[in-house]
Amino acid sequence: MAATLRGRCFPWVWLCRRAWPGGGRHYRAARCAELKQPLAIEEVAPRPVGPHEVRVDVHFCGVNFADILVCRGQYQERPHLPFTPGMEFSGTVLETGTDVSTVKEGDRVIGVSGFNSMAEECITDQKALWRIPDRVPLREAAILPVSYGTAIMALEHRARTQPGETVLVTAAAGATGLAVIDVATNVLQAKVIAAAGSDEKCQLAMQRGAESSVNYSQGSLKEAVRKLVGSGGVNVVIDTVGGDIFLDALRSLAWEGRIVVVGFAGGTIASVPANLLLLKNISAMGVYWGRYQDRNFPVFSRSLSSALQYCQEGRIQPYVGAVFKLEEVNDAFLHVIQRKSTGKVLLSLK
Ligand SMILES: NC(=O)c1ccc[n+]([C@@H]2O[C@H](COP(=O)([O-])OP(=O)(O)OC[C@H]3O[C@@H](n4cnc5c(N)ncnc54)[C@H](OP(=O)(O)O)[C@@H]3O)[C@@H](O)[C@H]2O)c1
Q: Where is the signal peptide (predicted)?
């Protein structure tokens, strides 16, 4: 259906969105109605905000590997169908609930949401929002929650990375990978070996601060790391790939090394040979960043405040690899899952 205004044709839904002042306009959202099927863009009716909730005008939403897994039913959390994916965003506050005291209308914020931010608007609890400092653009800010929150949690809170230590990071040119390189080199003064699946990705990782790189599609990661650091090994591994890459990385660790399991982008979950942990006094640990929101909120919140602070001080520089429009969300998912992406992929809602 279409309506005419001053001789121009507009879709009916376009007029609906703007012709409902105060009552809440409809907004567009990516919807997953059936697992493993393309997402649809739908007009969604808004709901009122609760006392502790905030309605945000979303400007950018991160496209995470986890969003794709959720829409395939392969993630540890399984929202009820239909749902709107998207777990992080940047935007401005549109409306606040009666008991909200932390932000006000017009504030620029980043936030995390269960699943609902691949949409022009989203509602979230005030505790899941952080104000963006003036110097940080909304686009770069959108990268901070998941990628930098995870990188900071893995490097600082879990592996306790020290200045001068060597960090090996896998899928190094990816969203998490580049954030790890940024924080490790520019905040923690560690030396990074970037491991990635192509020469172009290795080159990018080097440009973003890695000291050396290994293309693991062309031979053994363990042998390549040994050539770089000798038999001593690396102090910390941050692994997002899993499978044989994880096992090679584990075997590349030095005495009292730490390996942090972040993800299984390669699709295989490796078993840890416990004898390796014993022989070199190695610690193998995991990080599930989002889980800290419920289990240890101060630690979770600190990872985000630190990311914002590092960004405001110019110590880190989040890297946007590609920006897609909301209606291109399925292309954005393919871009990531086909290993074509580098850095963070964002949806722009404006
Ligand atoms: N635990 C947590 O809290 C947490 C937080 C954030 C992300 N993660 C996890 O970390 C992993 C990376 O997430 P991300 O968002 O940063 O993604 P990403 O690195 O931007 O993209 C995934 C990368 O993984 C590598 N990869 C290796 N084998 C692959 C395969 N079979 N299919 C697709 N990619 C493959 C590719 O890099 P190469 O071509 O260089 O190999 C690809 O570019 C995911 O498993 C995600 O769920 C976990």
A: none
What is the model's pTM? 0.93
CB of 289 closer than 6 A to ligand 1? yes
342 ligand 1 Cβ < 6 A: no
Is the predicted pLDDT of residue 2 greater than 50, yes or no? no
Q: Judge whether 255 lies within some domain.
A: yes
In a 13 Å sphere around the CA of 170, the CA atoms on its Cβ side amount to 28
Q: Is 150 in the pocket of ligand 1 (CB under 6 A)?
A: yes
Residue 39 lies in a domain: no
pLDDT tier for residue 5 given thresholds of 50, 70 and 90: very low
Domain of residue 188, CATH code:
3.40.50.720
Q: How many domains does the chain have?
A: 1
Q: What is the CA radius of gyration of the chain?
A: 21
DSSP letters along 76-90, please? S--PPSSB----EEE
Residue 264 structural domain: 150-291
Query: Is a pLDDT exceeding 50 seen at residue 12?
Result: no
**Position in ligand 1 atom list of the atom nearest CA 342:** 20
